[in-house]
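Chain and conformation:
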Amino acid sequence: MSGTIILVASLAVGSLLLLVFLAMGERKNRLDVRLNELAGRDGADAAPDGMAELARSALPRMGLPLLPKEGAERTRLKARLVHAGLYTRQAMVVFLGVKMILMVSPVLVGLAVGFVGLVPILYGLIGGMCVGIVGMIGPSFWLDRRKKRRQTAFRRALPDALDVLVICLEGGISLTGAIRRVAGELRTAHPLLASELNIVQREVQLGLSSGQALRGFADRCDLEEIRSLASVIIQTERFGASLVKALRVHAETLRIKRLQRAEELAQMAATKVLIPTVLFILPGLFVVILAPAAIQIMAAFDGMHR
């Protein structure tokens, strides 16, 4: 038993060290790799790649999550982080590191509690593994919840932003200046949308068109309403249509969708309330109503028996 515990602890610590090593090794971007290839230093890069492949093949056997490869897995995880609002370059490394810590640390804590003698070692190990499984799937649920919360905030704020944008355009301000004005006006009421509009404004200053910058915004938040807004602006810029009329119609459409979404949530509330009512409220009512009758029936049967 002690040999198995030592082996599990060694594998856990080794996995954590492998993750740190790979995180430090993958800070090198594609430009550095290409420069090393042109300099004839292919042999120096073979060792880290071999270690990465070894870790990817060994971690699943130990029950630990796969490290994302250079292809679709890495792109998918990076897109999920961007949709959740995590734009920093170290977001993927931090996310995987936290996920690994949440998986490994409960097992180590369970072993430590078992060695101290507070609980049996086997119970501590099993409890740590159960908590580690929760730590393995918990960050993914947190990421999806964060993305959903951001999308809800954008849906609520977008019709108001379009109204202010239409007013600015009718006053003679250009689209770039109107976006800057809207970002400043909505900083208090809708800070998430204001920060994203500031990013859009900076991309426009760097040379992108307003439609292309808004399309990048739609890719960052994965929201269909903003994709349609970017398409409207791109089409008006291409064909020379009235931007004010198009934005006013689009704002009215988004306002109707927001109202329909609120009505849908209101209709779903009755169904959601039914479950706690059946599980928690009705049993209490049955006890309050039927308990006196049950006591009287038991007393009657007791008198007849005597």
